[in-house]
Structures are given as C-alpha cells and as structure tokens.
C-alpha cells in the first residue's frame, strides 16, 4: 500500500478516484532535490505502482518552482520530514562514485516515472530546471501554469544534463532543436514549451491544480488495464520495428480483449450509455 503523509521534501495524498498527488514542499529552496529525496520518490512511485488504489500519479510543487534542480547549496541535509527509506552515502566522492551515484540514485527517479505503468502527469507550477525539467519530461503528460519555465542550462556551470534530459529532448523535439535548447542554455516560457511540444497545455496559474485534477480524474475513470498496456506499448514502439510493434501490441491485446473492462465497454456501447470501467478494482466481477 502506498504510504501517504509528509516525507522528506514532499507530501503524498491519495485523492479520489485513485489519484496519487505528490507535491514538493520546500518552496524556500525552490523544491530542490537531494539524493535522499530522490530515493524516497522512487519508493513512493514503486508503492503507487503496486497499489490497486492508485490509478494516476500527479507531480507538482509549492511556491514559484516545480523543481529548480538538484540542491547544490549543501542545505538539503537540514530538510525535515520522515524518510521512507534508510539513508545511504550519496556517492560523487570520486570519478566512479559520480558514475555510480548517477546510475543508481539520480537516474533511477526518471526511470521509475517512465517505467510506472500508471499514467503520470506533471503539473508544472513554476520553474523546472535540470532535474526538475527531466522529471517533468519523464511524465506522460505535462500541464504548465503560465508562469512555468523549463530548461537545463547546465552549461552555465560547466555541467551536463546527466539525468536523461538530453534523451527526452531528442525524443520530443529532435536533434537540431535539442542542440539549440541545451547548447544555448535556454530557459523556455510555458508558451514556448507549448510551441515546441514539451508541454501539452498551458493554463492560468490559479487554474493549474483544478485542471490537473480534472485531467487526472478523466484518466483514472478510464479502463485502467487497457490504458496501462497502451502506455507501455507506445513507449516500446519507439524502439521497435514495424513487425515487432505489431507482435508486441497483439500480445497485449490478447489480455485487454478478454478483460472485464472490454466487456463493459462493448455492453455500454450497445446500451447507449457511458461505460463504468474498473469494477475489478473494487473486487467486483
């Protein structure tokens, strides 16, 4: 079962109908992340994946930042809250330590978001820089407030977008635009991100949470088995050949076609009513 409450650097709330609302709660630090926070976020995502009560994940932040990147001030150790997992050394104490810290600690957060079968939504309330941008781009959908800004700008510090940002940008906007975005250290406005295809929609600041909840609710009420299988099939298709993608979705269709949601969908169509999916989640047939 997914644990809810206030943890180190973020809060978790389970909202009806099965929406895990994950909110970064250190606005005074622009919701900067530490290795400990990332490990706890991975644990929360893992719990959400395995909890039938959770259907959709929403990530957002308090204050004027979604997440302004990694905490490089050294003040992250002073963040209060109850950790979900025991602390371990953060790495980065040597060349190989940096490699291991990135592969095992930092990069696993975005991998966990992308690997979660349940739909994830980034409600980008403000600046999303480097780690924050990569985390938002790792989500399946992005709704941005008008005040949101996304960028990496790691070259300003002589650093690299080491948590997958370069891969995600290439997937979404191609090589030429990614080179322009990263080499020129761009911080794009919400409208610029919409034009680039980095966010799905832009809403007034005061409407962000309402819109995110409405969108999450719509997905949560949809057929969860087919939705999760489709999400995985879409991500797989990016790396598969035509023949492989046909075989892959055929195997998933063999599951979804015989599921209770498919029977309900067909019956609702014949009866000219809205379908009532997900009875299996409440223990019904």
Enumerate the spans where pLDDT stays under 50 for 5 or more consecutive residues.
Answer: none
Order of helices and strands: EEEHEEHEEHEEHEHEHHHH
Q: At the fourth CATH level, what is the homologous superfamily of the largest domain?
A: 2-enoyl-CoA Hydratase, Chain A, domain 1
Question: What is the residue-mean pLDDT, rounded to a whole number?
Answer: 93
Q: Classify the fold: give the CATH topology of the largest domain.
A: 2-enoyl-CoA Hydratase, Chain A, domain 1
* Helical run tally: 9
Shape: globular
Count structural domains.
Answer: 2
CATH class of the largest domain: Alpha Beta
Distance between the termini: 22 Å
Round the Cα radius of gyration to an integer and report it. Answer: 20 Å
Main-sheet strand order equals: 1-2-3-4-6-8-11
Question: What's the total number of strands?
Answer: 11
CATH architecture of the largest domain: Alpha-Beta Complex
DSSP helix fraction: 40-55%
Proportion of beta-strand residues: 15-25%
Category by helix and strand content: alpha/beta
The major beta sheet can be summarized as: 7 strands, mixed
Protein architecture, described:
The protein is an alpha/beta fold. It folds into two domains: 5-220, 2-enoyl-CoA Hydratase, Chain A, domain 1, CATH 3.90.226.10; 224-282, Lyase 2-enoyl-coa Hydratase, Chain  A, domain 2 (Orthogonal Bundle). 44% of the residues lie in helices and 16% in strands. It has helices spanning 35-50, 95-115, 131-138, 165-183, 190-196, 208-220, 224-237, 242-256, 260-270, and strands at residues 5-7, 10-15, 19-24, 56-61, 65-67, 119-124, 127-129, 141-145, 149-151, 187-189, 201-203. A seven-stranded mixed beta sheet has the order 1-2-3-4-6-8-11, sandwiched between helices. Strand 2 and strand 3 (19-24) form a beta hairpin. Helix 7 (224-237) runs antiparallel to helix 8 (242-256). The protein is globular, with a radius of gyration of 20 Å.
